[in-house]
Every structure is written in C-alpha cells, then in structure tokens.
C-alpha cells in the first residue's frame, strides 16, 4: 500500500493508466490533496465515489494527530505530531516579519549522539517515511501558509536521505504544495556521502552544515560523527558542493560557554570556514538541555566577541536568537519531556 502523500505529482499518471483511469484524474487528485488539503478521500468530491473508495484502499492519506500544541511568548508554536504506531515527532512553527518558517523532523530520535542535543540523547527509534514528513508539513499548514522549511528538527536528514528528499521534492512540486526550493533548507551534522549526493541532485535546496567546533579533537568530543568524517573530509565535501552547485553553504555554530567560545576558537573557525568559498556562519547560543546541565549558554558579550572576530576575518556571520525557549524549543525537548511524563505516570 502506497501512501498518497509519498507520491510525486508526475507519478500519479502511470498509476492511473495501470488501472485504466483517465489522466485528467491526476489533476483532480493533486488539487484535492494540495489545494483543498483534504485529509480523507471522502472529501475529494470532484472524484466519483467508487474511485474515492479505490484511493482509500490503495493510496490512503496518512493519519496523524497533533498530540500537543504549545505556544511560547514570542509566538513560536511547537507541535507534537503522533503517527499510527504511537511514535511522535516535533515540528516548530516560527512566525517572523513576512515569513512563517516550519522546522521539521526526519526521524524519531537521532542516532548521531551530539553531546548538546536533546534529540540524540535517547538514540533513534526509527526514521520517518516521506508521507510522515509531509504529514508534519500538513500539521503545520493548518496554522497558516508556510513560507520556509528548515530541516532542523529531530533526526539527521542524511541518515534518512531517500525519504527526506522525496518529501521535500513533493512539498516543492509545482502541482504539489509548490514551496520554492530556495525556501527549503536541509541541515546535516556532517554526513559526507549525503552532501555528495545532494550536490548531484540538480535541485536548489539550501544546505546548512552543523560545525560547532573548529578542530577535530573538540569536534569529535562534541559530535561523534566527526570520527567518521573529520574536518578535512567534511570541508572538502563542502567546497566541492559549492563548486558543483554554485550554492552557498551556511555553517551552524552553537556556542557553548567555556567549551567552544574562546577567541582562539573563533579565529580557528574563520580559517576553517574560509576553505569553503563564500560560506557563511550562523552563531547560535546553546539552548540548555536537561541531560547536560554542565553545558551553559554563553553571555551576550561572548557572542558579540565571537561575531566580531569572524567578521574581522571576513566571514559573513549572523547572530541567531533561540526562539520558543519557554516551549522546550531545543530540538527534541518536547518529545523527551512527554516520554518522561509518560514514564513517571506509568
Ligand atoms: N541533524 C541535523 C539537523 C537537526 S539539529 C544537524 O545536525 O544539523 C538542528 C541544529 O540545532 C543543529 O545545528 C544542531 O547542532 C543544533 N542544536 C542541537 N541541540 C542544540 C542546543 N541544545 N542548542 C543549540 N543548538 C542545538
């Protein structure tokens, strides 16, 4: 059984032809799914009743439930989206001037084990299928028109490459939700084969790479993935990506007080980043996580010093604010808290 939300627009026509159905039905299907945003084939009233029943039986629309919706003081909304096997993921909606950005998850939990990340602190349960990733988008869409997607929720997108790319291609499709590729950002912790594959896709998605440390020793201590793909391999793949696609890479750098926030770190970071033509840096203050009380958010002065060093070294840098702090916005925190509550109440 194939889920309706995993089928790319151009894939409907052969499906219909196999069943002796006329090609114009594909447009009706797509209109129902991605203009009317039906959640049940019964609501696709342009289609004949017996055909709706066929679709229901062979291409069901993924069932999901918004288990919890939490709004923080700054307007950020965090949804916990549950699927039929009882697993759930987080998606965050972030309003800003002229934008409505959705942060989506690609896995339940995460296997990468970055020291400062709540999502990875309990390992990975499973990857999401493409239709489940689309379901997150549908859950978010109910709150307003999404203008941007960042794949920065739970999970490592390149550890679930095929399903993630299928979902993003579908959301990007002109006859689908039609969200522009340049409004979709994929963030990886540094899975080099994923970066290489993305370079060959011929698609304009934005790429972010989580760096968080300027040398192998520190990076391996924070991000186990660095032992498999150390900085030379990672930055080499990033430079090749930029060369092949002419797309600018953004490096994410989460600043942790007393860990990676020294002037020497900033200077070393600038040298590393300059190995990738035109690359930019986003500096993010750490969001505190429960499992690592020793990791603290740096003060404002440290953030500004770090920014200043990078700028003086001709690296284009943005200071990012954490949003939705009071809604457990650090990636993976809401799901973890819920798991803990469920455990506590038996
Ligand atoms: N696996 C992907 C995408 C998910 S995480 C990746 O690693 O890029 C999205 C971003 O949030 C990453 O840059 C990640 O390192 C960062 N992050 C995770 N936990 C954080 C925390 N507690 N504070 C600040 N940033 C965090």
Element layout with pairings:
Elements: H1 12-18, H2 24-34, H3 49-58, E1 65-71, E2 77-82, E3 88-96, E4 99-103, E5 107-109, E6 124-127, H4 130-141, E7 148-151, H5 161-172, E8 184-188, H6 192-199, E9 206-210, H7 216-222, H8 225-228, H9 231-245, E10 249-255, H10 263-273, E11 280-285, H11 300-312, E12 316-319, H12 333-345
Parallel strand pairs: 4-7, 7-8, 8-9, 9-10, 10-11, 11-12
Antiparallel strand pairs: 1-2, 2-3, 3-4, 5-6
The structure holds S-adenosyl-L-homocysteine (SAH).
Describe the structure.
The protein is α/β, with parallel strands linked by helices and 346 residues long. The protein has 12 helices and 12 strands. Strand 3 and strand 4 form a beta hairpin. The protein is elongated and about 70 Å long. It binds S-adenosyl-L-homocysteine. The site of S-adenosyl-L-homocysteine has 17 residues, from strand 8 and strand 10.
Which small-molecule ligands are present, each listed once? Answer: S-adenosyl-L-homocysteine
- Share of β-strand residues: 15-25%
For the largest sheet, list the strands in their spatial order: 1-2-3-4-7-8-9-10-11-12
Instruction: Specify the number of helices.
Output: 12
Distance between the termini: 35 Å
Question: What gyration radius follows from the Cα positions, in whole Å?
Answer: 21 Å
Which structural class matches the secondary elements? alpha/beta
> Could you state the oligomeric state of the chains shown?
single chain
- Total number of β-strand segments? 12
Summarize the amount of helix as a percent range.
Answer: 25-40%
Topology order in helix (H) and strand (E) letters: HHHEEEEEEHEHEHEHHHEHEHEH
Largest sheet: 10 strands, mixed
Give the low-pLDDT segments: none
Q: Averaging pLDDT over every residue, what do you get?
A: 93
State the shape.
elongated
């Amino acid at each position: 059984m194939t889920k309706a939300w995993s089928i790319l627009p151009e894939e409907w026509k052969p499906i219909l032809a196999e069943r002796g159905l006329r090609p114009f039905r594909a447009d009706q299907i797509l209109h129902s799914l991605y203009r009317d945003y039906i959640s049940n084939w019964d609501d696709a009233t342009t289609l004949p009743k017996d055909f709706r029943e066929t679709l229901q039986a062979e291409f069901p629309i993924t069932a999901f439930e918004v288990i919890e919706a939490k709004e923080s003081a700054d307007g950020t909304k965090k949804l916990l989206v549950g699927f039929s096997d009882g697993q759930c993921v987080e998606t965050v909606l972030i309003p800003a001037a002229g934008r409505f950005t959705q942060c989506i998850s690609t896995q339940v939990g995460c296997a990468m084990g970055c020291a400062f990340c709540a999502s990875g602190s309990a390992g990975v349960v499973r990857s999401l299928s493409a239709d489940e990733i689309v379901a997150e988008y549908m859950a978010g869409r109910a709150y307003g028109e999404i203008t941007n997607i960042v794949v920065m929720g739970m999970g490592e997108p390149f550890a679930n490459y095929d399903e993630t790319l299928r979902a993003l291609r579908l959301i990007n499709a002109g006859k689908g939700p039609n969200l522009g590729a340049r409004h979709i950002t994929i963030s990886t912790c540094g899975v080099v084969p994923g970066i290489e594959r993305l370079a060959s896709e011929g698609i304009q998605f934005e790429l972010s790479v989580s760096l968080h440390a300027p040398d192998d020793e520190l990076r391996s201590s924070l991000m186990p993935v660095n032992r498999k793909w150390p900085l030379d391999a990672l930055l080499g793949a990033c430079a090749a990506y930029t060369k092949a696609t002419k797309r600018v890479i953004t490096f994410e750098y989460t600043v942790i007080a007393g860990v990676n926030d020294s002037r020497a770190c900033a200077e070393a970071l600038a040298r590393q980043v300059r190995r990738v033509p035109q690359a930019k840096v986003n500096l993010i203050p750490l969001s505190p996580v429960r499992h690592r009380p020793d990791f603290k958010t740096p003060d404002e002065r440290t953030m500004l010093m770090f920014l200043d060093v990078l700028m003086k070294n001709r690296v284009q840098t943005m200071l990012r604010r954490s949003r939705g702090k009071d809604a457990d916005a650090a990636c993976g925190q809401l799901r973890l808290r819920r798991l803990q509550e469920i455990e506590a109440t038996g």
